[in-house]
Amino acid sequence: MSTRYKIGMLFLLIALLLSACSENEKNSKLRVQSPDESVQIEFSDTAGVLEYQLQWQGQEIVGSSQLSILPNAHISILESKITSEDTSWEPVWGQQSNIRNNFKELQLDIDVDGTGGKLLARAYNNGVAFRFVLDKGEKPQEANLKIEYAFPQGSNYYTPAGESEPLGPVDFGGLTDFLKEEGARKRKISIPLVVESPNQLHMALLESDLYAAKGIESMRLGITQTEGKIESVNKVALNEKEWTSPWRVILFGKSAGDLVVNTVPVNLATPSKLENTDWIKPGKTLWDWRVHGYTAPDGFVYGINTESYFRFIDFAAENDIDYFLIDDAWYKKVTKGNFELSDKLNLEKVIDYAEKKEVDLMLYYDRRHGEYGDDELFPYYQSLGMKGIKYGFMGNNVEFTRDAIEKSAKSKLLIDFHDGPVPLTGIRRTYPNAITREYGHAQQDSRRAFTPESFIKMALINAITGPLDLNNGNFDLTGINRGLREKGPRQTNSYFSTVASEAARTLIIFSGLVCIPDAPEAYAAKADLFEFIQKMPVGKWDESLILHSKMDEYISTARRHGKEWFIGSVYNQQGGTLDIKLDFLEEGKEYEVTYYEDTKETHCKTNPEAYRVRKGKLKKGDVVKAVMAPGGGHCMWITPI
């Protein structure tokens, strides 16, 4: 054998080895695309580390990032397959009456240091989701579900901040600074984390179907120490034979508003667990808590008493308002299995009067006042004839929140969570009695001011997680700012809004229970403006659109019920004009429109109660210039002629 022949064979062998390595490298990367092929997720398991990359419309929006379920475990991809689904379903209530569930799913069979399971990756046209399932072999007692996100450099970030105005815009360094210790209190990044990339694409990071994951804490967001990425972490107790994680979700859209009406989170949720949902009725409710101390034009002073509650019930009955919510202080003390009722009012008389007037009641419960016990609590509320419970101070506890929703459903009670609850995104599909929650700075909460900017941010950030109870809709803004309420803002003249903006906010914030917080007389004095709230259906929307949206500046929302459209817009303290293009109306039809709007004299600080109501006619393709005062708003009720 010649030397030349040996050298040739050696080069051929090297070429074959390189080709094989290249082919192995090619096969080690697994991809799934969305139905319209605009989204691509790519996975690899190089050196026992599972990584993914995400592209949308040809752009990388998440760079190489790790996924893990057991700390420091070696992950191997064993097999893979791709499936698809294109179905639709009808929610009990929601922002849409029919929801399309269209995705492609890559299933990766994985081995995690001897524990077998799957990673599911779903690609929708406007979002992606990841879920781990561990169902084979021995599992350790605890796990640490962790996913990284390498968002584009130069992105801006926004996050809820409890009862304060949401944080943002901040860059990555600003997020890091936010997480630094403040005395003994450590801050956290709450979900959703909204990301605005340098080229103006918008993304939201959150989780869905937390209901299906047992033994888990809610998601925590942080910063990776070495590579400057975002990371999401859940601590998990693996006490289930087959353990399923929540879905880790990334939504995307061309505007911030696209994220608010995105249906991916509810599509990912467990389908309804309730066979009969006829008793679940979304609607509007009056609320007593912020009215205490208000003096009506006839001299009557509202408080915690029977006569005050009769007035609320009368107004609700006369104006087709479904519910009246009685807040704290209807009881004095709580012990195991017993409420000691307040002597300030006759609750039995109030209940009988509401039944006579065909107004349904809801009651508040504050767990800090004593432990009644949930096994007894919900049946007791049902025995009183209540239709719902506003549950306060339950804490950030997933298991407790899940149990409360299930137990309230057994007693046919709607449930509205108060005070920083677990968001449980998607739960309204699984248990539609979870009607709303105060996941944000509810209007005048902690008796602090509520600015136009904070509202716009919450409408574009907090609302991505689902329905919110923000208590919008005050009409006596002058009286509230003068301190003529027991529970108005602590600092007088610090609550900036206009009455047209207040009406618009009740539509913009999606909820199954719209809680309007002012006195009946305040609404009666502006009955022509109150008409917008009165006529607006709640929860039973056929279609919802965000027409305009910009963080800190404005939002415009349109919702359709049947052939009627309701449109609400608000602006920040600069004021401005939005062009409302009516491309969504039916061709060839003429519509009557009622405008509820600011005047030239309106101003959120100096003249908040100036407004006008006028009528007009519209058709498809018309453009309405919605002119808004500083901190103002604009509403339209459009009906076909």
UniProtKB/TrEMBL annotation:
SUPFAM superfamilies the record matches: (Trans)glycosidases
Glycosyl-hydrolase 97 C-terminal oligomerisation domain boundaries: 540-638
Signal peptide limits: none
Pfam families named among the record's database cross-references: GH97_C, GH97_N, Glyco_hydro_97
Coiled coil region boundaries: none
Gene3D superfamilies in alphabetical order: 2.70.98.10, Aldolase class I, Golgi alpha-mannosidase II
Glycosyl-hydrolase 97 catalytic domain span: 291-438
GO molecular function, one term: hydrolase activity
UniProt keyword annotations, A-Z: Calcium, Glycosidase, Hydrolase
Required cofactor names: Ca(2+)
Domain Glycosyl-hydrolase 97 N-terminal: 32-271
Self-association and partners: Monomer.
Name of the protein described by the UniProt record: Glycoside hydrolase family 97 catalytic domain-containing protein
Provenance organism: Christiangramia antarctica
